[in-house]
Specification:
- By secondary structure, the protein is of the alpha+beta class.
- It has one domain: Immunoglobulin-like.
- It is built from 1 helix and 7 strands; from the N terminus they run αβββββββ.
- Strands 3, 4, 5, 6 and 7 form a 5-stranded antiparallel beta sheet that branches.
- Strand 1 and strand 2 form a beta hairpin.
- The N and C termini lie far apart (43 Å).
């Protein structure tokens, strides 16, 4: 149990740090001993930055099949799976708290991208 929690904490920390660098990775056959990361060249726009009024948009040059927003302790606050993959989506959050969040985007080709966003309360 302790090893699993430590592994999860380390993965979330690594994802948060990598999201700052705007680097894209794909994870396959993830285990506690090894993982594969692939750098993909995907153009992704998330706007507005910072996010205000509980809504933001995502535009990519690849088709998305999943969008997930997670707080920094790993709780999903938004999740959408698309039957018909799309390259543009609008995300509407219900009363998010101010702070940093991770946006995970999964594509049809199996790759995933994690981006960090900041949510602010409007003035």
């Amino acid at each position: 149990m302790k090893k699993s929690l430590l592994f999860i904490f380390l993965m979330l920390t690594a994802l948060a740090l990598q999201a700052q660098k705007d680097t894209t990775y794909s994870f396959r056959n993830l285990s506690s001993r090894s993982f594969v990361r692939e750098n993909t060249n995907t153009n992704i726009s998330i706007y507005p930055v910072p996010v205000r009024y509980n809504t933001f948009s995502i535009k990519t040059d690849k088709e998305m099949k999943l969008v997930k927003v997670t707080n920094m302790i790993g709780q999903d606050i938004f999740r959408a799976q698309y039957k018909n993959p799309q390259s543009f989506t609008k995300v509407m959050l219900e009363n998010p708290q101010r702070g940093m969040y991770l946006v995970t985007i999964a594509f049809n080709d199996g790759s995933r991208v994690v981006k960090k966003i900041m949510i602010e309360n409007p003035d």
